[in-house]
Amino acid sequence: MKASTNLQRFHNRTTYYLSILGYFLLLAAFIGGLYYATRQIDYIWRWYQVPQYFAYKETVEIYVDADGDVKEIRTEGGKTVIQVKDLDGKLVTYDIPSKADVRVSDGDMLSSGDTLASYTKWKPGLLLQGLWLTLKASVYSIFFGIIIGVCGGIARISPNPIFKWTSITYVELVRGSPLMVQMLIWYFVLGTVVNTMLANRGIAQLPPLWFGIASLSFFSGAYITETVRAGIQSIHRGQIEASRSLGMSYVQAMRYVILPQALRRILPPLAGEFIGLIKDSSLLGIIAVRDLTKAAREATTTSLMPFEFYFVCAVLYLSLTFTLSMFVHYLERRMAS
């Protein structure tokens, strides 16, 4: 019996390692097939150009505004101060970073537009800007989507027809139309109305990003509403009755008894909704918002490197969704303990 058990363990271990080997062989075959396909279309990989689209060094030049001559150059408080006396005898002071390369000397005569100094500084590239905007839009949309979904889910099971029917109408309207159409309505219709009203009152107009966040929030809120409703209804009704018998109001029973239990049950589907929301944010480009997908398209247009940038774009989205998935798994373990 013992020999048979050891043989079975050896067989299971061998099968396990062979499966791992098979996985890596499939992965190698996919990568090799992709490389072979690119060779057939005579494509040249240029991965070395990708980093500059995350961050690059920009040369900043400081120019003189008017004709004159250099009166004084001194170092003060970790920076270089250049004073230029113009033709009217007025002293103009230029504060220049200490790391800058000063190109003038005392007494030099200058014409308007001449370079006083130049220096380099790091700036975020297209992909980093797009990644940050995608992350920002996703976080705001998830936050507002949760608020809308929780309120809508509670209203969905309310006996009051005003709350219940309003929630049902909202869910059916949002879930019954494509996100792209809703985003266009938010931007071109509601956005025009809102910004016109703000402009008439002398208030600064809202940028397109906020209308994109609003469309994503209302879209995800409709699905979260149904998830919250299902989670609340999965809790036995006797718990609400027991809470009310202890003197709790309906709101207190929901806050302290029902919702904490429902949250444990709806966390996995909520995670799926949030991951989908991050991917849906790629539609922000249709309303002139430079999200990650739009940034990748612009980088592809300027560099003619579609393979590299679209692969990088996919990996960046994967990193966001995978991080969120791991965070939700962590919350599940904490709430289960």
Automatic annotation (TrEMBL):
InterPro entries in alphabetical order: AA_ABC_transptr_permease_3TM (IPR010065), ArtM/GltK/GlnP/TcyL/YhdX-like (IPR043429), MetI-like (IPR000515), MetI-like_sf (IPR035906), Rudment_hybrid_motif (IPR011054)
Main location: membrane
BP term (GO), one: amino acid transport
Record family assignment: Belongs to the binding-protein-dependent transport system permease family. HisMQ subfamily.
Domain ABC transmembrane type-1: 131-328
Subcellular location: Cell membrane
Keywords, in A-Z order: Amino-acid transport, Cell membrane, Membrane, Transmembrane, Transmembrane helix, Transport
Top-level taxon of the source organism: Bacteria
A GO CC term attached to the entry: ATP-binding cassette (ABC) transporter complex
Membrane topology qualifier: Multi-pass membrane protein
GO molecular function: transmembrane transporter activity
Gene3D superfamilies: 2.40.50.100, MetI-like
The protein, known as: Polar amino acid ABC transporter, inner membrane subunit
TM region(s), chain numbering: 16-37, 137-159, 179-199, 206-224, 309-331
